């Protein structure tokens, strides 16, 4: 498994003028979390989702307990999100969307595992998504 090829609609990360990329701190982890981190890194290196980096920008990582047990790897991008230029466009109205479903007979539900890992970042901007361990 590997990332899809670059395309015209790769994800763009625009920083606010004059803002430097964040350099996040390390968060403390338990032994269980450190083991999960090692396993997650090895698996995602093997899949080609991540690669070693010496980026000047980093975001800290943490784990969240899953409802059914186990740990979910998370990157805390709040500092990066705080300095990005926001896309401003209206979302569809919930009531209008639900009204459009009236009378429909079939609905589809899909569960896409690791969909976030299949988003391509625009060339030259991947360094902004680096995380520190």
From TrEMBL:
It comes from Aspergillus cristatus (Chinese Fuzhuan brick tea-fermentation fungus). Gene3D superfamilies: HIV Type 1 Reverse Transcriptase, subunit A, domain 1. InterPro entries: DNA/RNA_pol_sf (IPR043502), RT_dom (IPR000477), RTL1-rel (IPR032567). Residues 64-131 form the Reverse transcriptase domain. The lineage of its organism: Eukaryota, Fungi, Dikarya, Ascomycota, Pezizomycotina. It comes from the Eukaryota. This is Reverse transcriptase domain-containing protein. Pfam families: RVT_1.
